[in-house]
Amino acid sequence: MKRVITYGTFDLLHYGHINLLRRAKSLGDYLIVALSTDEFNWREKQKKCYFNYEKRKQLLEAIRYVDFVIPEENWEQKKTDIQEYHIDTFVMGDDWKGKFDFLKEQCEVVYLERTPEISTTRIKQDLTKAQVAP
Predict the structure, then answer these.
(1) Is 48 in the active site?
(2) Active-site entry in 2, 45, 99, 124
(3) Is 124 a catalytic residue?
(4) What predicted TM-score, i.e. pTM, was given to this entire model?
(5) Where are the alpha helices (DSSP H) in 74-116?
């Protein structure tokens, strides 16, 4: 069984996320998603999520491409997750290209192209503009 892992916040889940998860799953038989906890998002990324960790986890678990969701609590856990879950392929969006090449010693590292016209940041910006529009 080929195991794949990806990491992310997955807040305001959208079709770009689904595209990434579908393509990640196509690289193996079993997809694990390491979901950033609320504490990790705030402490390390200065990001406050619209949906809390439990809600985001429920949404991910409802997606047919996702087999298992684990918490991402720190940047360093990637190396241990690869060992613990016997990962064959590590997947991230291409906005992270090169940042995780050090993991190539443990498994295959793949950077998938993002869906260009959608992002959570863009959704939040559009919503903010709509609130201030006359």
Answers:
(1) no
(2) 45
(3) no
(4) 0.88
(5) 77-84
